[in-house]
């Protein structure tokens, strides 16, 4: 894995060099602008490597603010974000970064002038299929953060792209994922794929799994469509992520450049600890995952930071408690894994769908299998402790409150993927999280979305105004995205 990753990073640098050459017009200055040592062929393998690397960082699965919203972590020094001070956030990095690279992969493999040359990095259809699946994944993250966003006119050179409704975006994401899965042609394996090694079967499982995640997002706003799309993905012959061997998990490298962002967060700084909310939830059910997910302090105890304290109270608490629990060793190691989609998450999604009557599967069987998959993912599975855990009244579906327990288990299983956990919490309301009493936003509630980039108010005003007009409550983080109905 390390060798493959390193080669792919080098390819990324070659791709960037090629793009710089391509942006010039050699004919203007004879051969002056031609570098005889630079590649004249786009290195799509490098672009793909770069995108997958970005998917495992702040763009999707490692960002502290949503981890604060779902109360996985708490601030130790500067509590502004956990008091909900952030309103607007910039989505430009998604469009100029991973989405731009993915569109270029599609363009290079489609354009008659380049498709033959880039086929050396994998068949054209296979490269396009992977790029379309990843585009759908990134657009899902973007629309779930902001709601209506540029989509149909994005990445096409429009200086002021319109904002598509989230409903329309979701409809197209379902289409894209289905068509992309069907596009794999059995040709040459795609290079630069540091997630699945070019394995088309695993990419199809990833696409079907993402379809299930998207389908469940519609559980409140459009359950009819949600049920249909979920059943379609579940019935697909390629299958979905159901065992840890199929996890979409990114392995970081034990070096400064490509280490886990969680390892980097504690390199010379100590701004966050695990929240008391998360620690207490695991302790209340004697959860065997606790030692892997949360580190003990030197006394041998777990001590979470009280969630949502304002600065004076926080400084007072940390002054009295200079040690507090950090995320566990499997998370903060430089070469740990970042989970994009896991078996535990998908099995819990299937359990919820079954509980809602969307499928004929057995909710309890899937729920218990999900917990086992999570235990195995974090290296804590033991038959005796597992049996005791799933039989306990606070966990067993037999004791009632099935949807609440499924939602709570998904919250635990997703840790520390704050973006996905935040989306699931907004949709289901589980677990029941209490906002900080020191909130500075108008509603005093946990944010429901990010406000649009402030630059859009001038650079893309007409389309921005149209999107804001569709928001109940305006462009605030208290407004709700389409699927997040009350």
Topology:
Elements: H1 2-22, H2 44-55, H3 64-69, E1 73-75, H4 92-96, H5 98-110, H6 115-118, H7 124-146, E2 149-150, E3 163-164, H8 166-183, H9 200-217, H10 223-235, E4 248-251, H11 261-265, E5 272-274, H12 276-284, H13 290-293, H14 311-320, H15 329-332, E6 337-341, H16 343-355, H17 363-377, H18 383-391, H19 402-414, H20 418-428, H21 456-459, H22 461-469
Antiparallel strand pairs: 1-5, 2-3, 4-6
Helix pairs in contact: 1-2, 2-5, 2-7, 5-7, 7-8, 7-9, 8-9, 9-10, 9-16, 16-17, 16-19, 19-20
Multimeric status of the protein: single chain
Shape: globular
Structural class: mainly alpha
Q: Mean pLDDT, rounded to whole units?
A: 92
The largest pleated sheet is described as:
2 strands, antiparallel
Would you identify the regions where 5 or more consecutive residues have pLDDT less than 50?
1-34
Terminal Cα span? 45 Å
Estimate the strand proportion: under 5%
Fraction of residues in H or I helices: 40-55%
Instruction: Give the count of helical stretches.
Output: 22
Q: Reading side by side through the largest sheet, how are the strands ordered?
A: 1-5
Element pattern in H and E: HHHEHHHHEEHHHEHEHHHHEHHHHHHH
